[in-house]
From TrEMBL:
Keywords in alphabetical order: Endonuclease, Hydrolase, Nuclease
Top-level taxon in the UniProt lineage: Bacteria
Keyword Nuclease belongs to the record: yes
Provenance organism: Robbsia betulipollinis
InterPro entries linked to this entry: Endo/exonu/phosph_ase_sf, Endo/exonuclease/phosphatase, GPI-anchor_lipid_remodeler
Keyword Ribonucleoprotein: no
Residue ranges occupied by any Endonuclease/exonuclease/phosphatase domain in the UniProt entry: 24-236
Protein name as catalogued: Endonuclease/exonuclease/phosphatase family protein
């Protein structure tokens, strides 16, 4: 009887916050590996290796007349809730960001980050119910030019500058200048976090993929998921973070 009471008390305590939470961000390169082969099953295998609770994905085929729905395949494989944020959308092809979550996605919004005539970019902004506690989880993929990224980071920070719930910003920022303005602005907002190299996956040289958390003191570990499968499944390695109370 005493053991049962202790177990129930532990369960209640565990639900007093959304933590602990394991998250990841992963640019899946359209599910085309470094060997040039389209293989969504390899992306699914990497997600199984990671074992995260919430995952941000970039460069995700989302279906269409001429395009397979890779997000649907990954959702079936994981059994997770899925949210899609298309940045390219036509009858033939939908493509963009996505979120997979062990916990229910309560609502989602698209943040348009397009810049002039360059490739359309955006962010998927999702509210997730983690054990009865809402978190705001943003998956994004920024542009290739410095001016583009400066504009996009300013718009992102304006869009989710809220203290109503914890905020997690994840994605492929395409920013390799350590002291560039976009990273300085993000550090000011979130505090500095570890940024291991994730690209290219075979011999990583650049820390393009990032995870930012507010409150910042909840982020206890950030590491690259570096396995034989991850090195071939995409041209990026996944970035994984542990958040705790």
């Amino acid at each position: 009887m005493v053991g049962g009471v202790a177990e129930r008390a532990h369960t209640r305590a565990a639900h007093d916050s959304p933590w602990p939470l394991k998250i990841a961000t992963y640019n899946i390169h359209g599910a085309v590996g470094t060997d040039g082969r389209f293989a969504p099953e390899r992306i699914a295998a990497v997600l199984t290796e990671i074992g995260a609770d919430v995952i941000a994905l970039q460069e995700v085929p989302l279906g269409g007349d001429a395009t397979p729905d890779v997000l649907a395949h990954l959702a079936r494989h994981t059994g997770f809730h899925a949210a899609a944020g298309a940045t390219l959308s036509s009858p033939a092809r939908r493509y963009g960001n996505a979120v997979l979550s062990r916990y229910p996605v309560m609502s989602q919004r698209a943040i348009d980050l397009s810049f002039g005539s360059r490739e359309p970019r955006g962010a998927l902004d999702a509210d997730i119910d983690c054990q009865g506690h809402p978190i705001r989880f943003i998956a994004t993929h920024l542009g290739l030019s410095a001016a583009e990224r400066r504009s996009q980071v300013q718009r992102l920070l304006a869009a989710f500058d809220t203290r109503d719930m914890p905020v997690i910003l994840t994605g492929d920022l395409n920013e390799w200048f350590l002291w560039g303005r976009p990273l300085r602005w993000l550090v000011t907002h979130f505090q500095r976090t570890r940024a291991p190299r994730t690209f290219p996956s075979r011999f990583p040289m650049f820390a393009l993929d990032r995870i930012w958390v507010r409150p910042a003191d909840r982020l206890v570990r950030v590491a690259v998921h570096r396995t034989a499968m991850a090195r071939i499944a995409s041209d990026h390695l996944p970035l994984v973070a542990q958040i705790d109370g």
